[in-house]
Every structure is written in structure tokens, then in C-alpha cells.
From TrEMBL:
Pfam families: Integrase_H2C2. Residues 130-183 form the Integrase zinc-binding domain. This is Integrase zinc-binding domain-containing protein. It comes from Patiria miniata (Bat star). It comes from the Eukaryota.
Length: 210
């Protein structure tokens, strides 16, 4: 349901809708089309010619990139064949069946309702979908602090996305000599041998856990 969707996970179009209805206590009930004998007049009503139309513009900005980086990402998104095809599906509407879309785009099916196209960029909620040619640069930026796998993934989750991004971050961190040398080690517990008793019943022990 749209009205219970997390604001951060919603695409910009739904974010604007959710912000508009925040001041109302609404109850939404589904009604199938076969039971709607008459269309809702207000949803079909167009303004009269010459009548002023009130417009309200609400913008929600989560991702902060420099203008130079935004331009670079816009050009790379436009040149990326996979993202160009994904953009067409987002703008024209998703089919009813996953098998009806090209195989390279089926990986986006699970979160299709979070994808949107705005200002020349594809977004997944508040995160920008990064084109293939820019992913290595983004990985280097995320990894430059050598914060380890988990913190790097959390950092990426705030602003950027591509399919299997967590796997790429994990692979890059595991192949980094600095991360491996300074990362937390998990040493095995040393063996603690007991001194063998000299006679029977010299040492008595009890299992207190069962």
C-alpha cells in the first residue's frame, strides 16, 4: 500500500504524494473496477479554459552530489545501454509479468516500485543508480577510509546503488592489504590442558549447564 510505504524508500513521485497526505487521517479501501459503475467525477474533472490552476511544487532532496559529478553521472546514465532500457520501462510502465522484460533487466523486478527517473538520473528511493563505467570510482570513494565491509556498505546505502553493490564492496575490502592488516582478527582460543590427577577422585568437576 502506498500510504504505509517508508518515505525514504519511496521514489520521488510517491514521496511528494506522501508529503501531501501527511496532514490527513485517511482510510484507504480497495474497490475493484467492476464495482465502480460511475467514475469519480473529481478525478476526471478538468479545469475550465482560462481558469487559473493552482500548482504546488514539493522537492525532496536526499542525495548530495556536486554539479560536476551530477553532470558526469547523467552523461554516463544516458550512454549506458542497460540503464537506458531501464529508463524506458520506468517511464512507460512495468509489465504485469517478469518474463515480459529483457533478461538483463529482470534483476530490477524485485524493487521496481522504488525506481524512478528524475533529472537525468535513475533513483532507487533516495539512492542514485550508478552506471557501470562510474562504479569503480564510487567504490574507490567509499573505500578510501578503509572502514571495513559493514561500514562501507552502510555508507553506500545512504546515497548510491547498483545490483550486487554489497558483493562488490566485500570483494574490494577483502582484496585490500591495508584492510586485512588492520582489520579485527579472530584468534582461536588457546588450549588449556589440565594436569592429570595422581589417584582416583583427586579432581572432581560438575557440568553446571545441564
Amino acid at each position: 500500500m502506498i500510504h504505509i510505504k517508508n518515505l525514504n524508500a519511496a521514489p520521488p513521485r510517491l514521496q511528494r504524494l506522501l508529503l501531501r497526505i501527511q496532514g490527513y487521517d485517511v482510510k484507504i479501501k480497495y474497490k475493484p473496477g467492476k464495482e465502480m459503475l460511475l467514475a469519480d467525477a473529481m478525478s476526471r474533472l478538468h479545469p475550465l479554459p482560462g481558469a487559473p490552476v493552482e500548482t504546488e511544487e514539493i522537492r525532496v532532496h536526499h542525495v548530495q552530489f556536486s554539479d560536476q559529478n551530477v553532470s558526469k553521472l547523467q552523461e554516463a546514465t544516458n550512454a549506458d545501454a542497460e540503464l537506458a532500457a531501464l529508463r524506458e520501462i520506468i517511464q512507460n510502465g512495468w509489465p504485469d509479468n517478469r518474463q515480459m522484460i529483457p533478461k538483463p533487466l529482470r534483476k530490477y523486478w524485485a524493487y521496481r516500485d522504488e525506481l524512478s527517473f528524475e533529472n537525468g538520473l535513475i533513483r532507487k528511493g533516495q539512492r542514485i543508480v550508478i552506471p557501470k563505467v562510474e562504479r569503480q570510482n564510487i567504490l574507490n570513494t567509499i573505500h578510501e577510509a578503509h572502514q571495513g565491509i559493514i561500514k562501507s556498505q552502510l555508507r553506500a546505502k545512504t546515497c548510491v546503488f547498483w545490483h550486487n553493490i554489497n558483493d562488490d564492496i566485500e570483494e574490494m575490502t577483502r582484496s585490500c592489504d591495508i584492510c586485512q592488516s588492520h582489520g579485527k582478527s579472530q584468534p582461536s582460543e588457546p588450549m588449556k590442558p589440565r594436569v592429570l590427577p595422581n589417584r582416583p577422585w583427586q579432581t572432581i568437576a560438575a557440568n553446571i549447564f545441564s
